[in-house]
Specification:
Order of helices and strands: EHEEHEHEHEHEHEEHHEH
Shape: globular
Number of helices: 9
Largest sheet: 7 strands, mixed
Low-confidence stretches: 1-6, 39-48, 68-73
CATH topology of the largest domain: Rossmann fold
């Protein structure tokens, strides 16, 4: 019997919420120890709820990483993403409300107003390592703590891992279940097919930076598994012909680099060889087409 199977193990669901670009996906990946949720410097990178699972000696934490709640735009894509946030909050045991050290504004308050009654909310103050004036941290914590009756306040750096052990200790106090919810070697409830699409989309954001608007997504048209080989056939869906040209790049170099880097990530996570074929499709208005969004996996 392993430690995780022994008595005294608590388990439960933990939502990670906050406005866009506060480091929610970085935190999830840090806690789980694998790249489950995609990360880039651009807001709105996370579009689906992603479940990551950490099984420790005395607890199993089932994390749900949500899209950053959108207040600026109201197309069908953002409405679907916001539904994901509110649905997640209705069905968890603990909430990590993530903000950026030194910054707390209207968009943060809009997310804070979504917190359900009766669910403990831990204030997670991220990016403390980037705060130039360290003396300003304590007054900032006091100011934000007055906004809500938080169960705990934990300053962290998701990038370096600083204080994340303390964050887990605080969360464990509120895990309601005895025993494990998932097998202890499981890292995520997401399929390899889903993770393949996320890795490709991450490279889009990382490699193209501000050149590519948010009107791009990835559709895995075919995913085949043959022993230790994965065959992945993916379409990058963009809104305009001009976006297609950006993704392909001069002489196809950008698309080749996206495919190469995404394939390497897949091989590491799947522990298998990956054959990856990617092409680009133009579907005008895809981000405001409810039926198309559902076919692409948006809820």
């Amino acid at each position: 019997m392993t430690q995780a199977q022994a008595g005294g193990v608590r388990s439960g669901y933990v939502a990670i919420v906050g406005r866009p670009n506060v480091g929610k996906s970085t935190l999830l990946n840090r806690l789980v120890g694998e790249k489950i949720s995609i990360v880039s410097r651009k807001a709105q990178t996370t579009r689906h709820r992603v479940m990551g699972i950490l099984t420790a000696a005395d607890a199993q934490y089932v994390f749900v990483d949500t899209p950053g709640f959108q207040t600026r735009y109201s197309n069908a894509l953002n409405r679907a993403m916001n539904r994901g946030v509110t649905q997640t909050l209705a069905d968890v045991d603990v909430v990590f409300f993530v903000i950026e050290a030194g910054r707390f504004g209207t968009n943060d308050r809009a997310v804070l107003r979504l917190m359900p009654e009766g669910v403990p909310v831990i204030l997670v103050v991220n990016k403390t390592d980037r705060l130039s004036n360290k003396a300003a941290l304590l007054p900032f914590l006091a100011e934000v703590s007055a906004e809500h009756d938080f169960a705990a306040v934990v300053p962290i750096s998701a990038a370096s891992g600083k204080q994340t052990d303390e964050l887990l200790r605080e969360a464990r106090k509120y895990l309601p279940n005895e025993g494990l919810l998932y097998p202890e070697d499981e890292l995520t409830d997401k399929s390899e097919r889903f993770l393949a699409s996320e890795y490709i989309r991450e490279k889009l954001f990382r490699l193209l930076g501000d050149e590519l608007p948010y009107a791009a997504t990835v559709d895995i048209e075919k995913f085949e598994q043959e022993g230790k080989l994965r065959r992945v056939f993916a379409a990058i869906v963009v809104d305009r012909d001009s976006h297609k040209a950006i993704v392909i790049g001069k002489g196809g170099e950008t698309l080749k680099r996206i495919a190469s880097e995404a394939r390497q990530d897949m091989e590491r996570l799947f522990d298998a060889k990956v054959y990856l074929e990617i092409w680009v499709k133009v579907k005008s208005g895809w981000a405001d087409d409810e039926r198309l969004l559902k076919s692409l996996g948006y809820e």
